[in-house]
Amino acid sequence: MAFGTQDDTDEVMNEINMTPLVDVMLVLLIIFIITVPVMQHSVNIDLPRASNEQEIVKPETVRLSVDADGSYYINDNKIADDSLAPRLKAAAAQNPQPDLHIRGDKAVRYERVAQAMAAAQQAGLRKIGFITEPKN
Q1: Domains plus CATH for the chain?
Q2: Does pTM surpass 0.85?
Q3: Distances (CA, A) of 51 to 40, 57, 58, 69
């Protein structure tokens, strides 16, 4: 006579127990992590010491202004139109190359500012900026 229900403990278990497999894999992983740096061969070299700090040299700024009547000024000194290109070429030849800040009067024709930009580009100046006044 059976009292109660029969348990299913007599059936064959058909699933793999993954816990021992995971334990073995973790142990192998730890072994490889420890042994790989030891296995790498290296040559002992006495390397020279050097400073990695950059020498910061601020380039000078060349201010090119175009006033209302179209005259050019470099660093507040008035220059003739034909001497603009040689002055910009001389500035482009400096090391480090200076920044060119162009300030154009709002009443000047855009053509005069465009001529100054073209002269700066032909001279080889790479850093050109425009100076404006903020709105209040």
Answers
A1: 61-130 (3.30.420.270)
A2: no
A3: 29, 17, 20, 52
